[in-house]
Prior knowledge:
single chain; 73 residues; mainly alpha; 2 helices
Amino acid sequence: xxxxxxxxxxxxxxxxxxxxxxxxxxxxxxxxxxxxxxxxxxxxxxxxxxxxxxxxxxxxxxxxxxxxxxxxx
Length: 73
């Protein structure tokens, strides 16, 4: 029983230390006057392909698809 009490106390100590150090304030600075990173246009296509039918099917509608074709989508 005594061993379990010691283990319980040892398990609580890290949480107490985290709560004490958690009182610091965080700060986010956004520099709108500076240019940001350029994102490759191929990245957007990879994620858009999964829309509609999860992974298989995507949003592109070909000529032989059961989904109605409206301007290729």
